[in-house]
Amino acid sequence: MRPEYQPGARNAVRACLGIHPGDRVAVVEDRDHAEIAQAVKEEVERTGADLVSWVMEDFVERPARTFPRELAEAVRAARPTASYYIGGSRQGEMAFRRPLLHLLAEELRCRHGHMVGIDHRVMVDGMAGDYEEIYRVTRQVFEIVRQAEKIEVATRLGTELVATFSQQRRWIPCDGRYWEQGRWGNLPEGETFTAPLGLEGVIAAEEMGDYFSERYGMLSPPLRLVVRGGRVAAVEAEGRPQLQAEVEAYLGQHPDSNRAGEFAIGTNVGLTEIIGNFLQDEKFPGVHVAFGDPYGFETGADWECPSHVDVLASHADVRVDGRQIMEGGRFLV
Questions:
Q1: Omega cis (within 30) before 63
Q2: What are the distances in angstroms from CA 105 to CA 180, 183, 219?
Q3: Following CA atoms 229, 230, 232, 238 in sequence, which dihedral angle do they give, to the nearest 10 degrees?
Q4: 80: phi > 0 → left, psi -120 to 50 → alpha, else beta; which?
Q5: Cα–Cα distance between 237 and 219 in angstroms, integer?
Q6: What is the pLDDT of residues 151-200, one digit of tens each?
Q7: Which residues contact 234 (CB under 8 A, 6 or more apart)?
Q8: Plot region of 301 (φ>0 → left; ψ -120 to 50 → alpha; else → beta)
Q9: CB of 44 within 8 A of CB of 51?
Q10: pTM over the 0.70 mark
Q11: Where are the extended beta strands (E) located within the chain?
């Protein structure tokens, strides 16, 4: 492994998933991320766990718009107790990753690390962070928001949001410790999220998830999303017709693709700047909202959607039931 990847690989294997002798670890990777996957696999082998891995391009052409039965059967036959996806995100590949995630985390009850879009910068930065501190802050914020009825968000770039919540939906603390079977998270961590009951206002999106992050990076000026009744009512891209058309098409691909499915607060206080990779940037102290699937198997939301795209509002002011917990991306608690 490249020496600079060792701290991140150690965190991914030991701190985050608690890999140990007796584990059976499955890795699904793509060719573009072979070096990072190799670092994680070498660290897995150092623990004494059993390892099996597959390269997705051996089963499906990119962009992967299906989840091949042959790969699913191979994963099931391996009976993994822990798993990783280490690869990129191309347009339409939610159709590959979503059933993969459900197979690993729900059906097989793996402890799973989802590393979508991981790159060199993220591996040596957010993935190499202090996961004791990430755990502590995430849990502290989780305890504040888990009973929230209303959260207000504002940023200097123009975000003005009001989100409302139901006690019938669960907040999930993505604290970087996935030591129990069936728990999973996007690595690097941390954040805490739920499916909101309602969402109103404007999001000045500095960055978007799914394939938009790799294709567009930071959005300057921000993309404006007008939200009414919990759904995106208008997309404003300021002279970028291609971006606007792609976002509108994404949000229109299913009746619930424009529906707010996630509200999250980033809790990785070790991050110092936004870098243009959503996998890490969503963990920066601030807020991100996703439209599409609400991860109902975790949040308790009673609907689902085949798409899910996040949008970032970093350096936010955040008030929970009137109590300010964040100012300009700095926690006050």
A1: yes
A2: 11, 7, 32
A3: 90
A4: beta
A5: 9
A6: 999 999 999 999 999 999 999 999 999 999 999 999 999 999 999 999 99
A7: 224, 225, 226
A8: beta
A9: yes
A10: yes
A11: 24-29, 50-55, 82-87, 111-116, 150-154, 160-164, 172-174, 184-186, 191-194, 198-205, 223-228, 231-236, 260-266, 286-292, 308-314, 317-320, 323-327, 330-331
Structure tokens at 195: 């499916």
CA dist., res. 18 & res. 8, Å (int): 14
What percent of the chain is modeled with pLDDT above 90? 98
Q: Any idea which residue has 């439209």 for tokens?
A: 291
The answer to whether the Cα torsion of 292, 232, 217, 243 is positive or negative is positive
String of DSSP letters for 215-284: HH-S-SSPEEEEEETTEEEEEE-SS-HHHHHHHHHHHTSSTTTTBEEEEEEE--TT--S--S-HHHHTTS
Which residues are registered as beta bridge partners of 154?
Answer: 160, 317
User: What pLDDT digit, counting tens, does each position of 84-118 carry?
Assistant: 999 999 999 999 999 999 999 999 999 999 999 99
Sign of the alpha-carbon torsion through 194, 191, 121, 16: negative
Cα-based distances in Å from 179 to 59, 131, 288: 30, 13, 25
The structure tokens listed for 223 are 């993309």
- What would the two tokens of residue 231 be? 């759904």
